[in-house]
Fold this sequence. Notes:
By secondary structure, the protein is mostly helical.
Amino acid sequence: MEFDFEGFDELLNQIEKLGDKATDIEKVSLQTGAEVLKEDYQNNIYNRIGYDTGVSQESITVSKISNHQIHVGPTTDAFYLRFLENGFYNVMAKKFIPATPIFQPIFLQSREKVLKAMIEAARNEMSSL
């Protein structure tokens, strides 16, 4: 039994091209999503903290892509934001200060917007094939 598909070779070529381009598409969509999340963190961080610390907005950075992951968060300039996020023991007051989540609520609020930006970036990259 023999099957004959018209355009099958063209389809295989397109799949091969997509395979070569898949890592580029992934990188572009991850970077786009991270930039959207960074912008949302910077715009909303003082709303969550309740006061202006002066360096919180500038300390939000986007890491390089490694192992198919990208991280968005504060640098060491704003290390105290991690304390607020997780809670900490205040030695002077001799009591535990409970967590005041900053990044998680902003992330949950921005998740749909980030995913849409990532999907749009992937579509744009795929359309350029």
